[in-house]
Amino acid sequence: MTLTQHSQKPCQDDLQNFGDAPEQVRDTDHYQQEYVEEFTDRWDRLIDWKARAEAEGDFYIRILREHGARSVLDVATGTGFHSVSLLKEAFDVISADGSPNMLARAFQNARDHGQLLRTAQADWRFLNRDIHGEFDAVICLGNSFTHLFRESDRRKSLAEYYAVLKHNGLLILDHRNYDRLLDQGVAVRSGKGNVYCGKDVNVSPEHVDEGLARFQYAFSDGSTYHLNMFPLRHGYVRRLMNEVGFQKITSFGDYLPGHHDPDFYVHVAEKEYKFDIDKTAM
Ligand code: SAM
Known about the structure:
about 25% strand, globular, 13 strands, binds S-adenosylmethionine, three-stranded antiparallel beta sheet, 10 helices
């Protein structure tokens, strides 16, 4: 396996910049400047590793083991929560992310947990340019895929994930329940759920329409940050996965099969072509 290592020097400009019309910022590349160093420094207060580990239990480890997966590409490493958890369980993990700030933080976090992270800066749209190898599984977790604003970016990224997988590989991808937000508006209960468990940060949707979900993250020290994201309907994500070639999609709500109106959906997409497959599993 060959990795193209990129410079992991954090961004100099440490202010989020959404300009005069923040609700007009609907740009896939903007994630680079949303994860400024100060926000990445606070990200783990939003996650709360201990609470998240308790909420998830062995959900991902069980799915990976059930499918015989050993090598895992974490394409949205963030601050490293899943990469580190999987390393501790003896999976063979490569940790990628498009943000050098996030990768730098993840590398340090892993060291604090006694693990050495193998990192690669890679944008999903060009994944195979920067990461050469085949994996049993790709994970894209923590509501990350939502950063892609154009349908062509979503299709290209899914195709890139598909391409780095072995013939019987697995993609595990999650996202917020945006159906609820889109159908009921920003006043709806939309908490941190069981993914973002931190107690000293208030997460609230500020704006939603079919092309944008803008969230505010207000920390107890008075600092506030925002993320502009594309609101993914869960049926739409399943359809796209099928259309790029994944054969079977099994979806979970808050880590339970067939659970409706959850805070988060998790989709497990299988690449292996079987003649008698039931493509509609939920
Ligand atoms: N998985 C982590 C977690 O659960 O805490 C991080 C989630 S964070 C919401 C989303 C991550 O996706 C960020 O680290 C961001 O840099 C990364 N990201 C967003 N768009 C990307 C892209 N086009 N290519 C690569 N990484 C991207």
